């Protein structure tokens, strides 16, 4: 049985920059404890003879034919750009 204290929840909330009220701390600590208890129950199940699966149902992708089409002209693409240089968009520098 895992014990998740309100202090642990408060610490994680602080790291996540989430402000929680006292009542929310109590509720979350109980819920997280229930989740960890359930995970502990799952760990006790013998899965040695169960083959791995990624889906319980067969999954098939529906794909369309990939056919080339004409692209937009450069003038039309850059028409609404706030700033452009030649055939390119101008964006603010991100790396300092």
Which parts are unreliable, with pLDDT below 50 for 5 consecutive residues or more?
none
Please write the string of helix (H) and strand (E) elements: HHHEE
- Beta content: under 5%
What's the Cα radius of gyration? 27 Å
Assign a percent range to the helix content. Answer: 25-40%
Biggest sheet statistics: 2 strands, antiparallel
Count all strands and give the number. Answer: 2
Overall spatial form = flat
Lateral arrangement of strands in the main beta sheet: 1-2
The CATH architecture of the domain at 6-43 can be given as: Orthogonal Bundle
How far the N terminus sits from the C terminus, by CA atoms, comes to 49 Å
CATH topology category name of the domain at 6-43: Histone, subunit A
Give the helix tally: 3
SSE-based structural type: mainly alpha
By CATH reckoning, the class of the domain at 6-43 would read: Mainly Alpha
Overall average pLDDT: 89
Secondary structure elements and their pairing?
Elements: H1 6-15, H2 22-43, H3 74-77, E1 84-85, E2 88-89
Antiparallel strand pairs: 1-2
Helix pairs in contact: 1-2
């Amino acid at each position: 049985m895992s014990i998740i204290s309100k202090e642990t929840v408060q610490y994680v909330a602080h790291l996540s920059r989430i402000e929680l009220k006292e009542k929310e701390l109590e509720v979350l600590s109980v819920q997280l404890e229930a989740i960890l208890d359930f995970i502990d129950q799952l760990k006790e199940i013998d899965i040695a003879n169960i083959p791995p699966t990624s889906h319980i149902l067969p999954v098939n992708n529906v794909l369309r034919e990939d056919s080339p089409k004409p692209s937009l002209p450069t003038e039309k693409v850059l028409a609404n750009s706030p700033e452009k240089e030649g055939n390119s968009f101008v964006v603010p520098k991100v790396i300092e």
